[in-house]
Write a structure and sequence with these properties.
Chain A is an alpha/beta fold. Chain A has helices at residues 10-15, 33-44, 87-92, 106-115, 127-130, 174-177, and strands spanning 2-5, 21-30, 57-59, 97-100, 118-121, 134-141, 150-164. Classes of the chains: A alpha/beta, B alpha/beta.
Chain lengths: 179, 282
C-alpha cells in the first residue's frame, strides 16, 4: 500500500498504475449527481464556482450525517458512471481527478487520459470503516441538497485503489488484459 | 368475529427496532457468506473483501451504519386478517418509524419527492410497503434497507412462453455482467419468474428477504437457484467489487407465480453484499 498526501504527492499519484492500493490523505470535495448538474451549469454560464476545481479531487459521495462525538458519518463512493456526462467538462477545468466506484465510459476514459488525470476507486458498502479515515468534514456549497451538497472532506490514510491510471490502465479490465 | 388489536405505537416501535437492527448489524447468514467467500488470488478483490469484513465490525459498534446509502426503506408485511391496528394505520406507523429512526440514528435521507423535481423529502419517506393479507391474528413485519446502486442495475424482461431454464440463466448472467462493479458485488440475486409486468419484480424483491442458504421448497427451483449462482460465478468475470477476481454471487433466491399463456416475465433484483434486513412477528 502506498501513502499519498494530496497537494504534496500529486506527481507520484499520477505515476501509479491501475490496481495499486493507496492510503490517501488530504482534502477532497464531495460531488454527486445534483452537485455535478449545478457545477456544470455554473461553468457553462461563466458563474463563479463555490470552490476551486483546478487541482481538486472530486469524491463521488453523499455522506450520512455525523453522529454526535464523531468526526464523520458513514461515507463511501457512489456509482461513477452517472457522473460521466459531466466529467469531460470538469476535467477541462483542471481537476486532478475523481474518487468513486465502477467503470467509466470509453469517452470519459479517453478524457481522463488526455487530461492526465487519475480516477481512483474505493470499496462500496464499507462506509462505517471508511468514515474512520476522515478527520474533518465541512459543507462548502449547495447545502439545500442535503446529502448531495458539496463537502470538503479531510482524509487520513483513506484506503482506495488507482482505477484509471495516466497510461490507459484500467482496474476493471486488468484481469482480462493479462490473460 | 374475533379481532386482535395491536396498538399503533407498538407497530412504530417494532418497525423502528428493525431499522436499527438492519442498518448496523448484518444478518448472521450474510456475515457467514462473506466470511466464507472466495477472495480469489492476490489483488484488489482480496483487499476489498478484507475491508468489507472489517466494515461489519466497525458498523457493529452501533454508531455508524454499514453503508452511507442507508437505502429506501422497504417493508414486507404479512398481516393476519383478524389484526386491527388501534390508533392509526399500518402505513402511517411504518412511515413514522422510518422518519424517526432515519433521523435519530443519523442515517442518510435518500428520498426525493418526485423524479423530475428532485427535492429531498428530508424524512426518507415514503417507505416502499408491500402487504399480504394472510389468515390468523399475527402481524409479521420485515424490513430491508436497500441502496440505489443495486436497484439501478436490476432488470426485467419478457421472455417467450417457449423459453426454458437456459434462457433464464442467460438473462441473469447478462444482467450481472451489465451491472459489473456498480451494484457492489459480491451480490445476492432475487429472481422473479412468472406473474405479470407488475408482479415479477416484486417476486424478485420478495426472494431477497430469504436467508442465505434458504432454498426454494420446490426441488427444481432450488436446483436452479444453485445453478444460477454457480454459472454466474463461473462465467461472469465480475468478481469482488468488479475487480475480476473472487466470488461474484453469494446466493440466488427464486420466487415464482402463475402467468399468462403468452408470457414469461422474468425479473432480477440485485442486492449488494451488504444485504440488510430484519423481521419480527407481533
Amino acid at each position: 500500500m502506498i501513502s499519498i498526501r494530496l497537494g504534496k504527492d500529486d506527481q507520484k499519484l499520477l505515476s501509479l498504475r491501475a490496481g495499486t492500493s493507496l492510503a490517501l490523505s488530504g482534502v477532497v470535495y464531495t460531488a454527486r449527481d445534483a452537485a455535478h448538474k449545478r457545477l456544470s451549469s455554473m461553468i457553462r454560464n461563466g458563474e463563479p464556482l463555490p470552490f476551486p476545481l483546478k487541482g481538486a479531487l472530486l469524491f463521488y459521495a453523499g455522506p450520512a450525517p455525523a453522529p454526535p462525538g464523531l468526526d464523520c458519518g458513514a461515507i463511501g463512493p457512489t456509482t461513477s458512471s452517472r457522473m460521466d456526462p459531466f466529467t469531460p467538462l470538469l476535467l477541462e477545468q483542471g481537476i486532478l481527478g475523481a474518487l468513486g466506484k465502477g467503470r467509466r465510459s470509453p469517452a470519459v476514459k479517453e478524457a481522463f487520459l488526455r487530461r492526465g488525470a487519475v480516477y481512483l476507486v474505493a470499496v462500496g458498502g464499507a462506509a462505517a470503516l471508511l468514515s474512520r479515515f476522515v478527520t474533518k468534514i465541512d459543507p462548502v456549497a449547495f447545502e439545500d441538497l442535503g446529502p448531495e451538497a458539496v463537502y470538503s472532506v479531510e482524509l487520513n490514510g483513506f484506503p482506495c485503489f488507482v482505477g484509471l491510471d495516466t497510461q490507459g490502465g484500467d482496474i476493471y479490465t486488468m484481469r482480462e488484459d493479462t490473460r | 368475529m374475533f379481532c386482535r388489536s395491536i396498538p399503533y405505537k407498538a407497530v412504530v416501535r417494532a418497525a423502528g427496532n428493525l431499522i436499527r437492527e438492519a442498518s448496523f448489524y448484518l444478518p448472521e447468514g450474510v456475515r457467514k457468506s462473506l466470511e466464507e467467500a472466495d477472495p480469489g488470488g492476490e489483488g484488489p478483490g482480496r483487499e476489498a473483501l478484507e475491508l468489507i469484513k472489517k466494515n461489519i465490525e466497525a458498523a457493529g459498534e452501533g454508531k455508524v451504519p454499514l453503508c452511507q446509502d442507508t437505502g429506501l426503506a422497504f417493508f414486507y408485511v404479512r398481516a393476519g386478517s383478524s389484526v386491527v391496528i388501534e390508533g392509526g394505520t399500518l402505513e402511517e406507523a411504518l412511515n413514522e418509524a422510518t422518519a424517526a429512526m432515519y433521523t435519530s440514528l443519523y442515517l442518510r435521507k435518500s428520498v426525493v419527492e418526485s423524479p423530475l423535481r428532485r427535492v429531498n423529502t428530508g424524512r426518507n419517506t415514503p417507505a416502499v410497503i408491500h402487504y399480504e393479507i394472510v389468515e390468523g391474528d399475527e402481524l409479521e413485519i420485515r424490513f430491508m434497507a436497500k441502496g440505489g446502486g443495486s436497484e439501478n442495475k436490476s432488470r426485467m424482461a419478457m421472455l417467450t412462453p417457449h423459453a426454458g431454464k437456459e434462457d433464464v440463466l442467460r438473462f441473469v448472467l447478462e444482467t450481472v455482467q451489465a451491472a459489473g462493479p456498480d451494484p457492489c458485488p459480491p451480490l445476492f440475486l432475487g429472481v422473479g419468474l412468472g406473474g405479470s409486468f407488475d408482479t415479477a419484480p416484486w417476486l424478485a424483491k420478495k426472494a431477497l428477504f430469504r436467508r442465505p442458504g434458504e432454498r426454494h421448497p420446490d426441488a427444481a427451483l432450488a436446483d436452479l437457484e444453485e445453478e444460477i449462482t454457480h454459472i454466474v460465478n463461473l462465467k461472469s468475470g465480475v468478481g469482488i467489487q468488479g475487480f475480476g477476481q473472487g466470488v461474484t454471487v453469494l446466493d440466488t433466491f427464486i420466487e415464482e407465480a402463475p402467468c399468462h399463456i403468452a408470457s414469461f416475465p422474468v425479473a432480477v433484483n440485485i442486492n449488494c453484499h451488504s444485504a440488510r434486513y430484519a423481521g419480527v412477528v407481533l
